[in-house]
Amino acid sequence: MLRQLQQPWVGSVAIFVAFVCVWAWFTAMPSASVSGGDAEYARLAGQSAPGQQASAIPSPWAVALRGWELITHALDRDNPNNLGIAWHLTYSMGRVALGFTLALIVAVPLGFMLGLWPACYRALDPFIQVLRPVSPLAWMPLALYTFRDSTISTIFIIFICAVWPMLISTATGTASVRAEWLNVSRVFGLPRLEHVTRVVFPASVPMILSGMRISIGIAWFVIVAAEMVGAQSGIGYFIWNEWNNLQIASMIVAIVLIGGIGLALDVILKQIGERLSFRE
Amino acid sequence: MADLDISDVSMSFVDRSGKEHLALDRISLAIEHSEFVCLIGHSGCGKSTLLNIVAGLLTPTEGAIRCAGATITGPGPDRAMVFQSHALLPWMTCVENVYLAVKQAFRGAPQTELMDRAEQALKLVHLDHAINKYPFEISGGMKQRVGIARAFAVQPKVLLLDEPFGALDALTKSSLQDELVRIVEKTRTTVVMVTHDIDEAIFLSDRIVALSNGPAARIGRTWKIETDRPRDRLQLTTDFDSIQYRKEVLEFLYKREPFPEPQNN
Predict the structure, then answer these.
(1) Could you say which residues of chain A have pLDDT below 50?
(2) Of the four listed, A220, A223, B207, B221, which is most buried by Cβ atoms within 10 Å?
(3) CB of A97 closer than 8 Å to CB of A162
């Protein structure tokens, strides 16, 4: 019994329960903003003051209830204004998948080339250094103007934010293959092609995969903001729409779902990485 | 004709500030066919540099090296190397590691023959059971056996060993030394080995070449080790000649060429 209490998840559950209790306690208190003079204003505005006593932040139960509602209606798509949350998430993940795949197709071969030819790397480096720190959202108006399509624009935004980590880690991985492996390749006279495919590439796989893991995290980060700005579907649009409807509980549910999916993506990439990387 | 002819080889490196450092100063050494030569010296004296030059991994600043009459311009199938850190490719099984080297040395041979050669090489070092294992699945001593198998599999004229047993425990080390002696005697390969283990050098060598301390290392002294083969490790501990060699090498390394004091600057 005591040993079970020492397991790490016990602490996590305790923190969660404490958090929910504090949350419930705060939301059960009458909101400060609608007391006193504001109550007077509310009456003048034709609203009944007692109705406004609940906090603006919904209680944990309200959020749980809303979550249940959203999940039971997750697959609704009877009209375009009432898309189920599963569809929004599917749209978002689809955009991330497309943008990420495009970035992968560009970044890995290009990074590999830069790693193999340091002169190319040095020539391209200033451009990479200038473009990399640009917030992906800064590209949004330009993308909307150029592509004249919100979906293509969001995919482009994902592409542009996912490409840098993969490009840089692929180039670094390719350029920093252990000297002893390069010496093996030279001493035993591997031809160029075999040197690249049998030594350099396998040696840089772990770096490529960690770049992919960073990229997918950033892509999932950015998709929410990109969809808030320029999309008519997706989880980012959903949050913004619920904000306009003052459906705070829905927003909280969406935040939890975004976190869960982000975690899942990271775990998947991590496991792919462990499977494909060599062991020593 | 010597199998390996090192003539007047000098090597200098340029450091970050652009200053030139002479590491090896006009080294000349002729190594006969199927001779076993150990290069000994303090760490940092340039013995590994010399070995890398012979391997073709480094180009000497001056001088030339001929292997069986042909001047060395880079790595070649006439020389194979066993590295200090086994240097197996971890994404390949043991036999794939050997196969990769064999394939380059016998280009054009049918795949079955190449595979056979790779497997035979691993059998030669008693690794029949580990053929399809990955390097991470086997012990350090076994990894170095694969390294030795890989080098012998390409049937080099000259085998280069860069402190191959430095990272192994004493017992594993002696069993690998015995293995090496057995294969070298069987294949009559010429061997150049870098070591800083005096007992190892006396047990294995026909000739010990001691380098003076760097920078600008030169050949300080050489000993012909004329103890009869096969040598017995136990017998060597009481053998008069071998005690004498041991004393002289020690004297050279600790009296004539003591390890340089770290400079305070």
Answers:
(1) 32-35, 49-54
(2) A223
(3) no
